[in-house]
Amino acid sequence: MSARLTLLLTANRPFGVSLLAVLHLVQAAFLLLAGLILMIVGEAIQHAIYAFPHFMRGFLPVVGFIIIIIAVLDLGLAYGLWIGKSWAWIVSLVLAVLRIIGALIILVRGAFGPVVTLILDLVIVYYLTRPNVKAFFGEGMKSTLQQ
User: DSSP label at 14?
Assistant: First the structure.
């Protein structure tokens, strides 16, 4: 095994960070599959459905392409989390906060569907702000050096 691969597999990575990285990897795989299906089968579905509006022809393949782009970005985020890149920590934190805001807006409007999402994202924000997790991403050292 190469030294870099050994480092990637045996890094002193917190378990929760590994879990987040793997979850992003799984999500990326499903998004990639969904995007490919929409790109390949989307046009045929649109032609098969008689009531599908003509001006929206080509819509599903475009959505599939956008989903593939999101999947690639998700793969990059998973890799960044796995190796402890500070930008991955920031992106994960921002995405969790945005999902919390979205869930709260939906809850205020009377729907209780996003309760689980809200709880999970609150846990993610809490976890990502723990000193040992911040230190893994190099964020804890910056705040210590600034004081």
Answer: -
